[in-house]
Amino acid sequence: MNEFTWTNFAKIASSTLSQMLGTATPVALAALGGLMTEHAGIMNIGMDGMILMGAFVAAAVSYYLASAALGILAAMVFGIVIGLFFALFTVKLRSDEFIIGCALNTFAMGITAYLSRSLFGSDGIRGAAYLHNIHIPLIKDIPFLDNVISGHSLFVYLTWVLVILMWLFVYRTPTGFWIRASGESPETLRTAGKDPEKMKWVASILCGVFCGLAGAHLSLGKLNGTFVEGMSDSRGYIAFACVIFGAAHPGKVYLAALMFGFFSALGLQLQGIISSDLTEAIPYVITIIMMVYVVVSGQRRREHLAKQQLKKLELK
Amino acid sequence: MKKIIALLLVLVLTLGCFAACKKGDSDKTVVTIVVAGQFGDRSFYDQSKLGGERLAKDFADQVEVKYIECNNEGWTMQMKNAADKSNIVICVGYEFEEIEKVAPDYPDVNFIWIDNATYEPIKNLLNITYAQNEGSFLAGYIAAAMSKTGTVGAVGGADDITINDFIVGYKQGAEYYDPSIKVEINYANSWDDPAKGKDCANVLHDRGADVIFQVASKAGDGVFEAAQEGGFYAIGVDSDQKYINDDVIICSMQKEVGKSIYDAVKKLLSGDKSQLGTTWVADMSNGYIGIGYGEAGAKQQIPDDIKAKVDELAAKIASGEIKVNTTR
At B227, is the pLDDT very low, low, confident or very high (cuts 50, 70, 90)? Predict the structure, then answer.
């Protein structure tokens, strides 16, 4: 390890934070989709497969048409198809969400491996058109921030916008309200004259689109137009965990993804000191601790509320 | 009536299965290559496939080559499946530890285990291990010679004995060139996540490493990309990976898995079974380990005098004059 100096520390800190953003983004994008289905009352563990297929479609289309933008567009369109497919089984045919999610993940592994091999040989895709990293004009000149914020792919910045849009959509538009109602109290929604199933379809499709974006980011944003089999590497499950402990609130979900990104980046930095097997576990241990915290604090809050209600009654 | 038809259909299907299960053409030797992971890593597993393809081509009238990919699970089961239907089973990957129990159950089948060795010799099993530490020594030497910052790096796929065998050799080679050199190591803990490999390489680059050796299968693709973006050099592994990106990949540590499989099977086919029951170390002295500089016409970054020095060192390693550290 290097000797400790402030310049060194600043360098390591900025590279950790920059990696945090990079690692968090695919997870955050998928989680933004996952929170829609969560609000609609569908337990979606199929996100990993959706990401993998998105990554493949984006890379393949971008390879053939030599355009990253078309690749991303194709991943989004394909996301719609997968969303429809997922909703067909979970909403229309009322199958078990868990089983369908698992099936989707396994299916994605198989179909992407098959297509990638039959179209591109066993090498996978490499050298598709990709998104170049962006250096933001003003921030580029500020020493520390330049390393952290500047020089990422477009998706990192796009995610910030999407988090805000998502928050507006979920909490400030009628459709968002209906989607939440379709999960919390479908009967009430039906009484109000809206079809909860339709809302679930919408949520599922949105989830597919966001997971497609997450996949496109992985293959065309983070990597330079590369697809290899199994490259989603369980990010979908992490996204699901982020949805749960961000309580399906877009801002909190994004923070959760950032936290995951931070600890994986920190793990890479710590490898010089601690065994890599342990550093690899850090993000997951933190996830469990946070999960417990969220559950316990939620319970406390409810208890507190209940006690206050009781007190009010007693006073009367 | 419907039930009878259904039953008949089931019967036909089951029989069809059995029909398909017969042991291939009886006069041909069936060679099955079972890989622990997946093809498509452009190095270790793909090398073994190349060996199989060469066999199928050169001995077309004698052998039939089949491939099984385990996708990192069910190694024992796949090994047994292969043994049921073939004469020679080649298990590619250090993960097939259960071969110690499986091989004695199939006395008529010849096994070859690539990249690891059983504790006790088994009479129908040939172990082939590779002196990757010797090749990595040269890779380390080259890395140190090409580095301007005095720091070189290596990204491993996992912190295990085989990968660390590369790493210790690499370290020793780098220190052989310059005892004061710093060698930074990171493990991706994944074999198929290039994004993770890229992060690992970037972390090493931030610590000053300007030549990075990848030993991480498909995750190593990310190392090459990081090198391209960050403007530093990378070293490939197992097969000659220069073709992937000859701007940044200055050379590759070659482990001739395909050639060793080809040669071992060729020997078995000729009726020479003396190798069974032994462990064969494919190393620098018998030419299965070395440094590859890409095909003719590829861009070269390493100056000729370093290449000459590397050849000299290779001769010293082959003769035993330089002893390379190992984790085995």
Answer: very high
Q: Do B186 and A133 touch (CB under 8 A)?
A: no
State how far the Cα of B91 lies from the Cα of B160, in Å rounded to an integer: 19
Of the candidates A244, A261, A290, the one whose C-alpha atom is nearest the C-alpha of residue A37 is: A244
- Say yes or no to pLDDT of A1 above 50: no
Question: What is B207-265 written as a DSSP string?
Answer: TT--EEEEE-GGGGHHHHHHHHHHT-EEEEEES-GGGG-TTTEEEEEEE-HHHHHHHHH
CA distance, residue A122 to nearest chain B CA (Å): 4
**Distance of alpha carbon A234 from alpha carbon B191, whole angstroms:** 13
Mean pLDDT of chain A: 90
Segment B42-65 mean pLDDT: 90
Task: Identify the residue whose tokens are 């990249």.
Answer: B115
Model ipTM? 0.87
Largest CA distance in chain B: 85
Compute the nearest-CA separation of B218 from chain A (Å): 7
Nearest beta carbon to residue B203 from set A2, A15, A116: A15
Pick the CATH number of B132-254+296-319 from 3.40.1350.10, 3.40.50.2300, 3.30.300.130, 3.90.226.10: 3.40.50.2300
Closest CA relative to residue B259, chosen from B52, B60, B69, B43: B52
Question: What are B160-191's pLDDT values in tens digits?
Answer: 888 999 999 999 999 999 999 999 999 998 88
Q: Where are the domains of chain B?
A: 25-130+257-282, 132-254+296-319
Judge: A280–B46 Cβ closer than 8 Å, yes or no: no
Which stretches of chain B sit within 8 Å of chain A by CB?
Answer: 38-40, 42, 46, 49, 158-159, 184-187, 189-190, 192-196, 198-200, 202-203, 206-207, 218, 221-222, 225, 228-229, 244
Asked if B247 and B268 count as a contact pair (C-beta separation under 8 A), the reply is no
pLDDT, tens only, A62-120: 999 999 999 999 999 999 999 999 999 999 999 999 999 999 999 999 999 999 988 98
Query: A162 in helix, strand or coil?
Result: helix
Q: Are strands B125-130 and B279-282 parallel, antiparallel or unpaired?
A: parallel
The answer to whether the B25-130+257-282 and B132-254+296-319 domains have the same CATH topology is yes
CA angle in degrees (0–180, nearest 5) for A232-A238-A244: 145
Dmax (CA) for chain A in angstroms is: 77
| CA angle centred on B224, ends B204 and A230, rounded to 5° | 100
Number of helices (H), then strands (E), in chain B:
10, 12
Element (H, E) at B32: strand B29-35
CB neighbour list of residue A217: distance below 8 Å, 6 or more residues apart: A25, A26, A29, A153, A155
Closest CA in chain A for residue B184: A272
Domains of chain A: 6-280 (1.10.3470)
Which of B218, B228, B229, B245 to mutate against chain A (most A CBs within 10 Å)? Answer: B218
Q: Which residue of A has its CA nearest to B45?
A: A122
What superfamily would CATH give domain B25-130+257-282?
A: Response regulator (3.40.50.2300)
pTM here? 0.85
CB burial of residue A244 (10 Å; 0-12, 13-18, 19+): buried
Q: Please tell me which of the candidates B38, B207, B229 has its beta carbon nearest to residue A2.
A: B207
Residue with tokens 């010089």: A272
Residue A146 contacts by C-beta under 8 Å, 6 or more apart in sequence?
A139, A140
Of the partner residues A11, A23, A272, the one whose CB lies closest to the CB of residue B199: A23
